[in-house]
Amino acid sequence: MTFTADDRVAVTDLISMHGHLCDSGELDRLDELLTPDVIYDISDVGQEPLRGVAACVAAGRALGEHNPVGHHVTNVVLSEITDDRVQVRSKGIAVNADGTTASVTYEDTVLRTSAGWRISHRKLRVHRAPLGGRV
């Protein structure tokens, strides 16, 4: 199956929907975004990678009130596009209840599945220094 403009829109919407579901507390719908065997790599924040949708849901629930009140995604770039696989980089901005913010980069592998496009691997990279620390 050829990767089309409609696929590009679907993948971009998929990346954007993550924040909507998390911010509204609809964690039970993460299977609409993630493959069942997803690897969600949060090692950059000192945690072991999460494996599977249930682990991602449990981690979100465990954070409870420490979750950001807003996940905002921007600068979505698709690359290494094949018919059924896309590499995606995007920027994430987290707004916390106390008004503090954080900036991350998401590095995603997105696959075409029978249920539609889904994230099969996500690597979270936290920005801690200007210019990537190359100052």
UniProtKB/TrEMBL annotation:
All residue ranges annotated as the SnoaL-like domain in the record: 5-123
Signal peptide from the UniProt entry: none
InterPro entries recorded: NTF2-like_dom_sf (IPR032710), SnoaL-like (IPR037401)
Classification via Gene3D superfamilies: 3.10.450.50
Chain ranges passing through the membrane: none
Coiled-coil intervals: none
One Pfam family of this chain: SnoaL_4
SUPFAM superfamilies (UniProt xref): NTF2-like (SSF54427)
Protein name in the entry: SnoaL-like domain-containing protein
Species of the source: Actinomadura meridiana
